[in-house]
Amino acid sequence: MWNSINQALNIIDNFVWGVPLMVLIIAGGLLLTIRLGLLQIRKLPLALKWMLQNEEGGKGEISSFSALCTALSATIGTGNIVGVATAVCAGGPGALFWMVVAAFLGMATKYSEGLLAVKYRTVAEDGHSLGGPFYYIELGMGKNFKWLAKIFAFFGVCVGLFGIGTFSQVNGISSAVHGFFDPNDAFTVKILPFIGEYSWSVVIASLILSFCVAAVLIGGVKRIASVSQIIVPFMAVIYFVFAVILICCNITKVPAAFATIVTAAFSPKAITGGSMLIAMQKGVARGIFSNEAGLGSAPIAAAAAQTNSPVRQGLVSMTGTFIDTIVICSMTCLSIVITGTWNTGLEGVAITTAAFQQGLPFPPVVASFSLMLCLVFFAFTTILGWDYYSERCLEYLSGGNMKHVKIFRWIYILAVFIGPYMTVSAVWTIADIFNGLMAIPNMIALFALSGVIVKETRAFFQHAKEEARAEHRSFEEVCEENLNEEEAPAN
Q1: Contact partners, residue 428, CB within 8 Å, separation at least 6
Q2: What's the sign of the alpha-carbon dihedral 112, 115, 120, 122?
Q3: pTM, rounded to two decimals
Q4: Measured between alpha carbons, how far apart are the two ends of the chain, in Å?
Q5: Which residue has the higher pLDDT, 182 or 120?
Q6: pLDDT of 349-374, one tens digit each?
Q7: Are 161 and 437 in contact (CB under 8 A)?
Q8: Taking residues 401-412, what's their average pLDDT?
Q9: How many angstroms separate the CA atoms of 170 and 320, rounded?
């Protein structure tokens, strides 16, 4: 019976995350890229500047940078290290090329999500913000589509509680700790007859993790944001530095690695024995899954940003995809291709670990420990980010009943505690299905509201250009002044 259920779930999962969904997301990104005139290239320098420059006087709960870090906390996770390795192993080095293509188009999608999140958010008198796909579906598309908004919110709660926010991340942490401290199960304990025997490293890791998660989540979004804006940039920079050191130490192999990646993207048979379709599918799927552009999760965090401009927050949100995939995922993939560990028969995190051990000029134990540390903190912040997403989805579903949200928070903490002992593969498959289903109502909204996105963008930049020309000032100066003078947009 269980085999039949697992087979059925796998069929559904392959369909949800198959070609139709990827085409939908890529087509949406392509449409927005064209209609916005390659905004992700033209305005990237401005976006990177605004990413680190908080807006004064904006309404919301947290700064724009904190909102970005909260979104990045959910996207930068085990997928950047483990998922990329799996994609390259299955689709070959060419998967990186298609991953970057998906991320490039996804930057326009993420911009649009951030813009709509701020434009249609609600901000209470106490400064409490609520926004995201459920609100821009209901308020942007009309009350007749409220059912679609509720479907998105339901999927968001399920994804956070049953999979990507808890079980998969907790398992990633416990596996990394176990693999480093007690790979041979030298120190084990039998917890309960129906749970089984586990390494002490797993048990201790689950207890410490549960305590740390509870300590942060009880403080609400402001504490989640304050922790994320410290951990996320710090660990991202650490990981980036290690990857750069690896690449610099093997700089003579970089041209050949790029040649392999491009060749494998279009004619992979000579290199991997696979097909171009597999390389494309694995690369696009991993790019989407990693940066979540089109899934509708990041705009929930963007709606809490202290800003008066939807366009500004859209640009700041766009940098998340750039950092997550074009920078971090590309570094992981390039490290794997340079060292050749993708074709050694290893799987998952073992591929990236082997790449770091071979490519870095440090003892293997130092490389392994560094990677484990990055995995633990990346996964930890993902747990925090997805709790926030799930809570906001539940708040929308319950009509603002915060009692339900508080109860959910403790259930979420419990799920984190039991996560290391969950071994039912169906749990991950169900979570994967819900994650993919989130994208459908969100992408429908982006297609329907693409005209609003283009109109809002053109009006903002046209007004700034006219003022700059009339007053003989720089475009950036006028933008900054307008941001500080604008009132929060009406809902």
Answers
A1: 163, 167, 168
A2: positive
A3: 0.84
A4: 50
A5: 120
A6: 788 888 999 999 988 888 888 888 88
A7: no
A8: 87
A9: 23
Cα angle for residues 40, 233, 223 (degrees, 5° grid)? 110
| H or E element at residue 487 | none
Secondary structure of residue 32 in the 3-state scheme: helix
Whose CA is closest to 330, among 7, 77, 103? 103
Q: If we measure between CA atoms, which residue out of 152, 137, 129 comes closest to residue 66?
A: 129
For residue 6, how many other CB atoms are within 10 A of its CB? 14
Distance, CA of 430 to CA of 9 (rounded, Å): 7
Q: pLDDT tens digits for 125-170?
A: 666 778 899 999 999 999 999 999 999 999 888 888 876 777 777 7
Q: How many H helices and E strands in the chain?
A: 25, 4
Q: What is the spatial distance between Cα 164 and Cα 432, in angstroms, rounded to a whole number?
A: 8
CB 131 within 8 A of CB 152: no
What is the rounded distance in angstroms from the CA atom of residue 19 to the CA atom of residue 285? 9
In the chain, % helix, strand, coil (3-state, to 5) comes to: 80, 5, 20
Q: Which two tokens stand for residue 69?
A: 């870090």
In the beta sheet, which residues pair with residue 197? 190
Q: Is 305 helix (H, G, I), strand (E, B) or coil?
A: strand
Three-class SS state of 187: coil
Distance CA 357, CA 78 (A): 18
Q: What single-letter DSSP state applies at residue 399?
A: T
Q: How far apart are CA 201 and CA 209, in angstroms?
A: 12
Name the band, by pLDDT with cuts 50, 70 and 90, for residue 189.
confident
